[in-house]
Amino acid sequence: MNDNKVLACVDQSRFADYVADYAAWAARRMDAPLEFLHVIDRHPEKGSGDDHSGAIGIDAQEHLLSRLSAEDEARARNAREQGRLFLNRLRERALAAGAARVDVRQRHGELEQTLTEQENGVRLLILGRRGEAAERTQRDLGRNVERVVRALHKPILTVTEGFTPPQRVMIAFDGGTVTQRGV
What residue spans define the domains of the chain? Predict the structure, then answer.
């Protein structure tokens, strides 16, 4: 495992291209490998929207369960394929922006847990201020940003719209030993 990589967390929101641009810039500046990570939620909040309440009949439960399993499998397969195409597009974008070594990874699970498992190999984490689920809200930050910042003990760059090379940084300083070492 490489302790030097830049890890860019992406979903299929409008921030993904900006995350890719900042990640390519950081990887170039730090002379570090870049990895794009796309986490597919295992338990999406919204269902298919189909009403199965009237599915009564002989072997209805077995047939319904079989049909629901097949639909779930098809959704998962589609999500994996869409994610693969999406990650390959971002990989090409980062290579075109000058990143030397770019890898992609797609996982099923929860973002926070996946990142805590990956933390030891990360030098810098980059993610968008909001993700796909928060695009339709008026919140400044998405639901994952605060949880990720609290869970990880690595530098985190949150990205807004439009890439411009950073000229200033802001450090959240609580006086603890970890932040004193960081400063």
Answer: 5-43+61-182
- Amino acid at residue number 94: A
Helix (H) or strand (E) holding 18: helix 16-30
In angstroms, how far is the first alpha carbon of the chain from the final one?
26
**Residue 8: DSSP 8-state:** E
Q: Encode pLDDT of 133-147 as tens digits.
A: 545 555 566 678 888
Q: What is the C-alpha separation between 174 and 101, in angstroms, rounded? A: 35
pLDDT, tens digit, 9 for 90 and up, residues 82-115: 889 999 999 999 999 999 999 999 998 898 999 9
What totals of helices (H) and strands (E) does the chain contain, helices first? 5, 5
CATH 3.40.50.620 at 5-43+61-182, yes or no: yes
CA–CA separation, 54 and 56 (whole Å):
6
What pTM does this model have? 0.77
What tokens does 166 get?
A: 């950073």
CB 11 within 8 A of CB 131: yes
Residue with tokens 């589609």: 78
